[in-house]
Amino acid sequence: MSFNDNTRLDTSQVQDRRGKGRGGMIGGGIGGGLVLLVAILFGVDPALLDGLAGPATQEQQQGPGEQEACQTGADADARTDCRITGTVNSLNAFWPAYLRDYDVTYRQPETTLFAGSTSTGCGNATTAVGPFYCPTDTTAYFDPDFFQELVDRFGSSGGPLAQEYVVAHEFGHHVQNILGNLDNAQQDPQGPESGGVRVELQADCYAGLWVRHATEVLDPQTGLPFLDPLTQEDLNDALSAASAVGDDRIQEAATGRVSPEAWTHGSSEQRQRWFTQGYQSGDINKCDTFSAANL
Ligand SMILES: [Zn+2]
Residue 6 domain-assigned? Predict the structure, then answer.
């Protein structure tokens, strides 16, 4: 979705670790008892995470204060990092109001932009993990360069809603953390009917739910809608991204075969269908993947 050019972006909701030379390690990496992060591409398999998340390296140097460039909706349309910020602003305006009807208090998550690798409450992580949410520090992490990889390596279309869907999916995990559903992924991470797959498909449904309501969400600073009306092309972009990160498609590309017993996120078809379910219904009760007989 395109942003309303005149909406104001609130960069205070996004911490920018790019170019600050950070990358300090937190001790111990991924050890027993630590809650694991949930990533867009991979599951919560500790072996995989250990393999990917080596010591945090010096983060890539970039110009200082890049978030300073993210001031308006026009900037969000022009730059990937500003689009993440604008999407975060919209999500942080949407969810508290939506959950209030269910007497649930939404606590705003942190959002961190990084380049290359970073330390988190769930251990050190690299860009290879893809965007992820860490429940321990209630933070969503994004390397903006991933979104080019989503197109080049995973074959998604590159439109704005492809990117916004990914951000909304990670915020879906935050909502699950608030509602107490995220533990299902930690306890039963793998397999076609696993808690992990149910958690991921629900996060896709929540992303669709936000998309359904997104154009009604007003920027509290200006009173203007954050986003312009949705187009069919926007929806196609979101479905393309959901399909690109399906387990069957990633497995097929990596190994030439599909192994449902190793699924952590669900198939391309399932991810598209649950996103659509959230989008079409606009109803959180229609996102109950835990009691769904057919995923
Ligand atoms: Zn996820």
Answer: no
